[in-house]
Amino acid sequence: MASATHSRITATSVGLDPDANPALPAIVITPDDSGILPPSGLDWDIDSDENNVDLAFFEAMLGCLNEQHDIDAARIYSFGFSAGSVMTAMRHSTYPELLSAVICESGAWFNDQAEIDLVNVFDVAWNWPALDSADGGAVLLTHRGPTDVTVLNVLDLELSAQAAIPFLQANGRVVVDCPHDRGHALHPGVTAAIVSEFISAHRAGRASPYFSDGIAAADFPEGCMLRLP
To answer: Most-buried pick from 58, 60, 153, 167 (CB within 10 A)?
Structure first.
């Protein structure tokens, strides 16, 4: 099962097509954000505390699906772009044993002080769990240079990505780093087939095959680089 967290984009536009790989049957959930404004949130509720409405929804959604379908708990993934990428990063931080592989396009990790320090306009007071290297995991990360910025220049997402890569590596995550040149937009080369390849390769509780096999066989776009812990 894959969960696409986004801000007003469709499942297929982010590459999560349930029919992309017949060998990988999938249920794709694309929730709408709550429209929460900073500093309370970024479209989504990204203060990770016991009152977080979007984390509560995620848990309830999984419970509901598990009652109706045969869900493989080792194959649950999340995809997010922009504010949705931040939500995906928070989900992975909160449920690393469940969401071990995630796709984050043009986002940020607010349990990384270096990225918190990049935020303009307001002070970040969001409570995120710290990453634990023992949890491992894999992150497909995309970003685009100096024009990859948020509305009102609250955060330079290229600088955030450059900080996120060593942060994730230092915390035991395998990173597939995919820069592009389309500004604050989805990576045009990260297609449904690439997303399917990435999630197909990863299972919760298992080491990433990229440790031994690299990413060449996965046919990632030119310029993508494997960053091992």
So the answer is: 58
Map tokens 């992309």 to a residue.
20
Q: Whole-angstrom Cα distance, residue 128 to residue 121?
A: 20
pTM to 2 decimals? 0.91
**What is 2-227's CATH number, 3.90.79.10, 3.90.190.20, 3.40.50.1820, 3.10.290.10?**
3.40.50.1820
Write the burial class of residue 21 (CB in 10 Å: 0-12 exposed, 13-18 middle, 19+ buried).
middle
Pairing of strands 225-227, 174-179: antiparallel
Is the N-terminal amide bond of 221 cis, ω within 30° of 0?
A: no
Taking 70 as the threshold, does the pLDDT of residue 217 lie above it? no
Residue by residue, DSSP assigns 159-196 as HHHHHHHHHHHHTT-EEEEEE-SSSSS--TT--HHHHH
Helix (H) or strand (E) holding 47: none
User: For residues 119 and 148, is the Cβ–Cβ distance under 8 A?
Assistant: no
- The bridge status of strand 28-29 relative to strand 174-179 is unpaired
Q: CA 145 → CA 10, 96, 133, 195, distances in Å?
A: 24, 28, 28, 22
Q: Which long-range contacts (CB under 8 A, 24 or more apart) does 53-56 make?
A: 54/87, 55/90, 55/91, 55/94
pLDDT at 135 over 70: yes
